[in-house]
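Protein in question passed on here:
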Amino acid sequence: MRPSILQLLKAAAAAILTWFVCLLVYPGQLPIFGAIAALIVVQDSVDQSLTKGIERVVGVLLGVSVALGAAAVFGPQAWLFIAAIIVAMCVGWLFRMSPTSTNQVAISALLMIALGGLQLDYGFERLIETAIGAAIGVALNALIVAPVRISPVRVAIDQLCRQAADVLSRIADSLAEPRDRAWLAEMHASARALQEERTRVNGLLRQARESLRLNPRGGRYREELAEDDAIFQRLQPITQQIIGMSRAIYDLYSPDLVEVPAVAGMVEEIRKASHDLERLGQPRDATSADNEPPALTAPYTIPRPHPDHWVLIGSLMEDLRRMRGRITGETL
């Protein structure tokens, strides 16, 4: 996803500010390490910025150590770059660092060697410079319109509710009139797609939580995100039950199901569940006329099991019972 222009401007501003601050601290030295740190640290959330800042400082510390150690052992040789890369990769593997952090160690070591600063005081200055850049990057990202990623969550939850409601309607359609195997296969495929959509919403929720962590603007959005999270927690088992209902129909379907009197009542109840599920993801407004009571007002019962299709009907009834509790909020 392309970052916002504001994030790019903040990264540029952090790098420029770091450049001039480091020139005041260490005049006569090009503050390349500090500018790189400022650019890397400005991330999509304050929490990620702090993490990247720590990673960058640690990476430079290890990279400087690798460069100084390699120079002390091998001397100012032309192939010192190769030795530094090998040692940096070994250090990253030894400390179980991520590939990104390991690369930062190697890049820092290469910059040390390329800039010709193979003295301890030069390496210490580059470490301080990196810390300055990281601190400025974190501060700017937090203080200037810190990123908040909660809007996509509400949209994604509404889409998941609509998609699940559509699958429920198709399940009701399969019981309302006879369907062939191709139609059932398509219906089951659409139900299985709910799993991928649910995973996507879960990822968006995780990003939203990260964007509010350590965020000065986070207080005003936490309650809204908590409501979205509560709805998603109700949605997760509902989508799993819909997938199970679809699978049961696909495996045990028979055209004469539509002639069973109890199934006709189930069709009506499933359509009610679809209606209520679609409304579950919509914004709630106490003054809105759309806040009608749920259609699933009472459990549906079948007094006598069908002799031929009792397994399928019983399975669907149990899933419908659990779904009703989740939609109405009686089962949490």
User: Anything to note?
Assistant: The chain has two domains: 5-143, 151-328. The first helix runs from residue 5 to 25.
